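ugh ok fine here u go
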Amino acid sequence: MKKIFFLVAFIATAFGQYSFAQNNTNNTQSSQLLTQYYAIKDALVSGNASTAAAKASEFVKTANSIDDKILPEASRTALLKDAGDIVKTKDIKKQREYFTGFSDHMFALAKTTELSTEPIYKAYCPMKKASWLSSSTAIKNPYFGSSMLTCGKVVETLK
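structure:
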């Protein structure tokens, strides 16, 4: 009887560790998307079109490598289109236009998938009538950069 109990406990522990390892990998992959999104946002805040394109290219590679269970096909398609559009142009104004839809799609994903253990702040710019995601409550507007850096406010927090 003790041997059976020990065997069952051993198997349960092994499966529990495997499941935990998978969940940790899933969280790491999805958090990479958010980290890369933030890098694109920061490049737009600083007005650096080349960096924004490079970071968007990294985002595309990561999104393509993530399992369908973590990143649903509809979200992947929308995000790849948005990030791909940012990659294709070096015009900062165009990149900022594409970032609007990109941010909306990232927020939709963030509401359904745990992208971070930290809070995600949704900020809104009334001048552009567009939102973006941030890791802090400090406003750094990616749509106008230095000309209107602090225009906007946090309108929602995902925890």
